[in-house]
Amino acid sequence: MKRFTKLTAGALVLAVPLALTLTSCSGSGGGSGEGDGDETLTVWTWDPAFNIYAMEEAEKVYQEDHPDFTLDIVEVPWDDLQTKLTTIAQSQAFDELPDIFLMQNNAFQKNGINYPDLFSDFSDSDIDFSEFPQSVVDYSTIDDVNYGVPFDAGTAITALRTDVLEEAGYTVDDFTDITWDEYLTIGKDVLAKTGQPLLSGQAGSADIPMMMLQSAGASLFDDEGNPTIVDNAALEAAIDTYTQLVEAGVLVEVNSWDEYIGTLVNGTVGGTINGVWIVGSIQTAEDQDGKWAVTNLPKLDTVSGATNYSANGGSSWAISSTADVDLASDFLGATFAGSTELYDTILPKAGAVANWIPAGDSDVYNEPIAFFGGQPIFADVVKFGPEVPSNNTGAYYYEARDAVSTAMTQIMGGTDMTTALEEAQANVEFAME
Amino acid sequence: MASDVKTRTKTASRRNQPPPLNNYIGDRKPWLSNTRRRSLTGWGFLLPAALLILFMSFIPMAQAFVLSLQTGRGTRLEFADPLWYNYERLLNDDVFRLTLTNTFIYLIIQVPIMLALALVLANLLNNPKLRFKAVWRTAIFLPCAVSLVSYSLVFRTLFANDGFVNDMLMSIGAIGGPINWLGQPETARFVIILGLLWRWTGYNMVFYLAALQNIDQSSIEAARMDGANAFQTFWYVTVPQLKPMIVLTAILSINGTLQMFDESWALTQGGPAHQTMSMAHYLYEVSFQKNPNFGYAAAISYVILMLVAILSFIQMKVGDKRD
Fold this sequence. Notes:
The complex is a heterodimer.
Chain A: H1 2-27, E1 40-45, H2 48-63, E2 70-75, H3 78-91, E3 100-104, H4 105-114, E4 119-120, H5 134-139, E5 141-142, E6 145-146, E7 148-152, E8 156-161, H6 162-168, H7 180-194, E9 199-202, H8 207-215, H9 233-248, E10 251-254, H10 257-265, E11 271-275, H11 278-282, E12 292-295, E13 315-320, H12 325-334, H13 340-350, H14 377-384, H15 397-412, H16 417-431
Helix pairs in contact in A: 2-13, 6-7, 7-9, 8-9, 15-16
Chain B: H1 2-16, H2 34-68, E1 70-71, E2 78-79, H3 85-92, H4 94-125, H5 133-145, H6 148-158, H7 164-171, H8 185-213, H9 217-225, H10 230-241, H11 243-258, H12 262-267, H13 279-289, H14 294-319
Antiparallel strand pairs in B: 1-2
Helix pairs in contact in B: 2-14, 3-14, 4-8, 4-11, 5-8, 9-10, 11-14, 13-14
């Protein structure tokens, strides 16, 4: 009897840990890796309503000529995607990479310079990069080599509530091709007559000053990669204008992204200035149908090189280093860099405005959009695209942007602008050590 | 028979005594003696766990220390010159000093209030005459079971400019206009401290409740009979007997607060310009959001480790003084 129990006990001691280890083993070992099979590509991207939808339509377009082609699309939010790429690159586990992944334009330089092993370049592909606006291609160009196909346009627009403007006696034309001084004057008038501010923004986020900066063709870094936060006339003008807007009440600051969208959807503000992708969020407010219009940005008239055009955000498709490069670049070239049919399909449903210039010639782009009072906004935005000045982000863009946000918070709290900007520059130089 | 009696006694006596430790056959001690076998069995049971901890915890910790001596961007890491370059850089980093101050503010304000509150609540809930004890205890402990991210997001919505708290305060006339809770450094820190208090008081209360069960009721009754009021009983009789548990919860709380990440990340995203960012959040930012500088991040993590170790050491020295 004693021996039997000992035997059972011994068997259990061996079997149970073994079973537990095996169950834990079975879960792993299924990383995405290269395309298995001849005609399958894996894609990592975010936003089902926009990017994933666009990819699925691209798959259908490509399947017309290549029936065996399939895409394996995995939804990965941008923050997670950035973390994954960093982790994969640091641990050198490159077979975990997908074939194609989407990357924010602002982060492209940082990832490309720090982790060149993640990317394949487009030097062997047939894609004609001159069919894209120079400013957008520049984001994914490192040392004159292209690493990304531009996708989502971050072209900035001024979106305005026509009913609020009418109440104050203005129209959209009063906001086209103007300067920021004029914008401020009209904004104060609208505020006085209707009680509604014209803009909202996240406190401590430097989105609007960055757009102003880019519209003047200036950047936070020079060509050698040194930070140019001090002695930057365009930046000082941008921050100055921003401060004036907030003090006059024309721009109301909120604390989080959800609150910002809330101000648009709930009608707290009479407009916004952001990338054209904001129309997706605006259109969720069905009760405001027909009451919006779109135009270009005001310009910083005190700065030379000022334009009425800018950009915020935007993304590009990149091919990873372990991908089937020929298939992937052929796919991207035939769809995102070569198919008007694709752009025609995704525009109405998702509002995905093409960076690809030939796409703007199609009829779909010239269709009037009811939500915006019959204005063919997408045709207008595609016309804005080539006018946008380039922006030198460099690898330390996020550090510089954060430093400028901090400086802005201090300036709004009363600190002298030169001191705050010098501190910001010192912080960025520290981070660059 | 006489010989039978002797055998019986010998067998009986042999059965009632433990086996002799040196009952080996022959005149040489075998290598696998009983003592050795027992200690080897013990080590055999410890071995899997010990190996796991060695490979999963200690070796990575050593690797992290080596990493903190290296510098460079992305994968281009090489040993810094001088070796402690990252630590020197830490001392000059304004943002790191700010996060250090923030974390210490949370520590100094939140931990004592929380522990005192937990102590008082535990004492109240230990009252044998209290009705619905289970309900109160569950209600106070429940915030602990909520996910860190969920409660941070809910707090963020509550304290938004047009959130519930502002609405309520304005409707009872306590404030004239909405307070920008998350937009100013002081109020943002206050919201984080409030969140931490709400969440962790129940957790520590359960520890104290458990410890209170071990207190001899007669000591409390004796104090009552000697004329002590409730507060004096609590302070002079109950609390000294809870000393070991207080030291334990203090060490756990300090450890947790110094490594705080989720509230800083989900509630305030580092607050207006890094003003509410904790050290762990800054570490994440340096590793994944800004230009990845993993050597520097490892140095920050070691600074956190050293702070926790020092504070815990002080705690234990102070706590065990009179034991």
